[in-house]
Amino acid sequence: MKKWILSKHDSEAVISEIERSISKELNLPKSAQVTFIQPREDAKFALIGELTFIAIENGYVPFLGSQQAVSLLPSVTVDSGAIKFILNGADVMRPGIVKYESWGDAGRLLAVREEVKGRAIAVGKATVKSEDMESIKKGQCVKNIHYVGDRYWNIYKLV
């Protein structure tokens, strides 16, 4: 397992990239530093205080084990019947969504929450605009990127 702390300058660049990926400012102090942990060659995590993000091909995604990071995202809530499919990697389809927050344009990262306790079970990318949700009755709305029980979830247990 590799672990390294970035310089202040490099940390600022990574924090800017994370903010771009999640479409939200983190409002961190100037002294915030990023620590990278790489348990295996195929997975790298960025830690900034209590926030944990997964480094993916073209940006960063909040890690589901870090509720503070996931809470930065707007969310969609799914019914109980959709949970088992999402936890097997399926995308979120419109019939399974019972409520949602406004997120704006397609391409925005969203937290997928279960209906009973409101826990985040996945992070995905919106495939439609939030204002189109009322008129959509079926089809894919969120592309599943990271979910409880996936490889990132299991690799992070090694940390």
Describe the structure.
With 159 residues, the protein is α+β, with helices and mostly antiparallel strands. A 6-stranded mixed sheet has the order 7-11-10-9-6-8. A 5-stranded antiparallel sheet has the order 1-2-3-4-5. The termini are close together. It folds into 2 domains: 2-66, Pre-PUA domain, domain 1 (Nuclear Transport Factor 2, Chain: A), CATH 3.10.450; 70-154, Archaeosine Trna-guanine Transglycosylase, Chain: A, domain 4 (Roll). The radius of gyration is 16 Å and the shape is globular. It contains 4 helices and 11 strands. Strand 9 and strand 10 form a beta hairpin. The protein has helices spanning 8-22, 67-70, 80-86, 151-156; strands at 2-5, 35-40, 43-48, 51-56, 59-62, 75-78, 92-93, 97-100, 109-114, 120-126, 140-147.
Task: Write a brief caption for the model.
This protein is of the alpha+beta class and 159 residues long. The protein has helices at 8-22, 67-70, 80-86, 151-156, and strands spanning 2-5, 35-40, 43-48, 51-56, 59-62, 75-78, 92-93, 97-100, 109-114, 120-126, 140-147.
- What letter string, H or E per element, gives the SSE order? EHEEEEHEHEEEEEH
Mean pLDDT: 96
> Which percent range describes the beta-strand content?
35-45%
Task: Let me know the number of strands.
Answer: 11
Return the CATH architecture of the largest domain.
Answer: Roll
- Classified by CATH, the class of the largest domain is Mainly Beta
Q: Could you name the CATH topology of the largest domain?
A: Archaeosine Trna-guanine Transglycosylase, Chain: A, domain 4
Q: Compute the gyration radius: what is it? A: 16 Å
Number of helices: 4
Distance between the termini: 8 Å
Uncertain segments of ≥5 residues (pLDDT<50)?
none
CATH level-four homologous superfamily name of the largest domain: PUA domain
Q: What is the share of helical residues? A: 10-25%
The domain tally reads 2
Characterize the biggest β-sheet.
6 strands, mixed
Helix-and-strand structural type: alpha+beta
